[in-house]
Amino acid sequence: LAFVAAKLGLGIPLNEIKNTVTKVTCACFEPSLDYVVVKIPRWDLKKFTRVSTLLGSAMKSVGEVMSIGRTFEEAIQKAIRAVDVSNLGFQETSALMSIDQELQTPSDQRMFAIANAMHSGYSVEKIWELTKIDKWFLSKLKGLSDFGKLMSTKKVADVPSSLFRQAKELGFSDKQLSIFWSTNEQTVRKHRLEYDIMPVVKQIDTVAGEFPAFTNYLYTTYNGTESDIEFNDNGIMVLGSGVYRIGSSVEFDWCSVRTVRTLRDQGFKTVMVNYNPETVSTDYDEADRLYFENITLETVLDIYQLENSSGVILSMGGQTPNNISLPLHRLNVKILGTSPEMIDSAENRYKFSRMLDRIGVDQPQWKELTSIDEAKKFCDAVTYPVLVRPSYVLSGAAMNTVYSEHDLANYLNQAAEVSKDHPVVITKYIEGAKEIEMDAVARNGTMIGHFISEHVENAGVHSGDATLIQPPQDLDGETVRRIEEATKKIGEALNITGPYNIQFIAKDNDIKVIECNVRASRSFPFVSKVTGVDLIELATKAMTGLPLQEYPPVTMPADYIGVKVPQFSFSRLSGADPVTGVEMASTGEVACFGRTKYEAYMKALVATGFRLPK
After folding, report:
1. What domains does the chain contain, in order, with CATH numbers?
2. Hey, what long-range contacts does 584-589 have (CB within 8 A, 24 or more apart)?
3. Where in the numbering of this chain does the ATP-grasp domain appear (predicted)?
4. Average pLDDT, whole number, for the chain?
């Protein structure tokens, strides 16, 4: 649309503007669509305590997803799953309030309130009276609810091919079906392939197949008989960032786009998988093929097998792709970069902790505890304050800093269930320590590029809410040396190929590792742009075995400093507590340059819209 609007603005008539999708029709040719698109917003209200969840005239969502299908049912189920990994589709979920109240007052949970109402036996008529949502939508959703109930009475071995296909045509995922049938996702997949039920790939062509389309803009569907394209590219798949949310946003889109561009410059065919309409990666001219699809085990595996892809890069899209690295690897998908077993070693607290002890890198004391008494004993031993992370959260309160035994008892009783199945992890919290961010790239365990950024706030403020300074201004030379040494050791121990990020805390030159992410982090774009060294290009070349220059020269003038400052949206979230802590709350960021850290910081603060005192 922007392309057409710009040409119209220049005075070019519609009949002279080419349709970039079909390449043969002009812009005055009326589009006809043989697909349905659903867009759903993503809210992250759980991140804020005491926030009002009521939806009204002030926007509260932080991102959105888009899904494409051949039927409304298929598209809406895909979109619901895309919003959050924990959503399986349109089905009932634990209710936050009474169904009637939830239906009458729209909140971020409204879709699930409708599912709960249908599951409890409400009629379309009754839900319409409470919500005034068009009955066409409600009757389609009721069809999904009823079909789900039917499915939950079956066993996987008893489901005939026709019913299985119907489930897939209605947009039910393998994982969703596995829960109905009390089995696992791979068993469902095995049965599906035995019945020869596979998705077909369709093009977005805006003319419903009336003219041949030359587009690489694709989606998968079960409502079709043949694919629109030939699969002979064997391209490298790059998994995108997924939905923007607090903690994972446009930074990862920048990383995946830089990856695709680097691969294309080097002559590789590329396949982009993402489902976020706000991103550059979902522009159909960025990659050789764009799949507007969910980043889940089932979908990625289907596309990988259809495309006969030569490998998957999943370290550029944040945590969403990283979460499926091990299952993909176990199903013989070729993962480019660090081995998924090693990614798991960094993400599993026990494995990572044992590895740090083995290579002689320090970490704060921590322990996983299964009862409140044990928790109290451990806290007395390491002394307060401590950082508490429950593994199972009831009230949406996740990590918290606790300063006394009284606080600990209150927090654990109110926020989480502590038991053998739901342990709580308690870490010694070091007061007055500096937090330092290390972004690095390695090849076969050898570091080939790194940058250190310094946090302005002391440790205990989430790295996504912290102000970053690059290059660091107040770090002791010895601290820097120790951080580089520890990063080298961790890179070797995990045999990393590609990007990684480590967060350190330092006090009196004593450094400790808080966590290590074996993927691009949210500070990669910032350090790459400040220094003029594209770490993502370097990482992509390392992962694909291309020739590269280790430690490329920094193009930034010596007397310049970059400062990154978070952007908060508390003014839109009535009732939210505007204090930053260990949970991330910012929704964006800005960065500015200056000749001193104060000048750069001042510029960046003004850029966020912060009114400076006179």
Report:
1. 52-65+81-194 (1.10.1030.10), 200-336 (3.40.50.20), 365-428 (3.30.1490.20), 434-607 (3.30.470.20)
2. 584/47, 584/246, 584/247, 584/462, 584/464, 584/465, 585/47, 585/48, 585/246, 585/462, 585/465, 586/246, 586/464, 586/465, 587/62, 587/246, 587/249, 588/249, 589/526, 589/564, 589/565
3. 353-544
4. 91
